[in-house]
Amino acid sequence: MAKYITLTEPTMGENTYVIINNNKEALIIDPGIALVRLQQCLQDEQATPVAILLTHGHYDHIVNVDTIVNSYGIPAYIHKKDANCFTNPRANLGNFTLTTQPTLFSESEGTLSISTFIVNYWHSPGHSPGSTVFTVDNDKVMIAGDVLFAGSVGRYDFPTSNGGHHQASLQRIFQTFSDDYRVISGHGQATTIAQERQHNPFKAWFE
């Protein structure tokens, strides 16, 4: 199983994840964290980044994409329905744009080979049009972004959000993933599918 490291940005509480496999290669998930902290993590782990994966395009999850891409020369993957978040401040909910050209995936679900990683993805719209959840290799860890939290779900009141789509995405997640999956989210603590199935205040949405 890969090593999953959480780096939390102090202002917005956004979680950036660094996933390191046995080959000392690293995937960077949602780089809202400052470059210096990411560099220190990679140095401490003696790991080489190979790609950025984005669960969605809101500013607190993508703000440091350009800096990291330019520093390491790696691609940034995002679902095509959130690609406009790189160039449209209204879509990313922030007052900035990126210069990076993202690598897009477009299917409702699929598999990507990124160096020696196998990344599985499920398009899970609602919080944003291109929200996506991931798993890596055969690890029973779901990377949820802002779709699902410990004890809550992601907001669906933003201009590009859709509550009906969000509910459908959550239903699909709880039909797809077994109770023993760990869930790591864009904000807050880790949880499990079992915990949220039983105790999440929105659990009626999942059933």
Shape: globular
Strand order of the largest sheet: 1-2-3-4-5-6
How confident overall, as mean pLDDT?
A: 97
- Mind telling me the CATH superfamily name? Ribonuclease Z/Hydroxyacylglutathione hydrolase-like
- Can you tell me the CATH class? Alpha Beta
Structural class: alpha/beta
CATH fold group: Metallo-beta-lactamase, Chain A
Structural account:
With 207 residues, the chain is an alpha/beta fold. Helix content is 23%, strand content 30%. The chain has 6 helices and 14 strands. A 6-stranded mixed sheet has the order 1-2-3-4-5-6. Strands 7-8-9 form a 3-stranded antiparallel sheet, with no helix packed on it. It has a 3-stranded mixed sheet with strand order 10-13-14. Strand 5, helix 4 and strand 6 form a beta-alpha-beta unit. It is globular and about 45 Å long.
How would you sum up this structure in a few lines?
With 207 residues, the chain is of the alpha/beta class.
Give the topology, please:
Layout: E1 3-8, E2 15-20, E3 25-29, H1 35-45, E4 48-53, H2 59-62, H3 65-72, E5 76-79, H4 89-92, E6 103-105, E7 109-114, E8 117-123, E9 132-136, E10 141-145, E11 148-149, E12 152-153, H5 163-176, E13 182-185, E14 191-192, H6 193-199
Parallel strand pairs: 3-4, 4-5, 5-6, 10-13
Antiparallel strand pairs: 1-2, 2-3, 7-8, 8-9, 11-12, 13-14
Which descriptors would you attach to this protein?
alpha/beta; Metallo-beta-lactamase, Chain A; 3-stranded antiparallel β-sheet; single chain; 6 helices; 6-stranded mixed β-sheet; 207 residues; globular
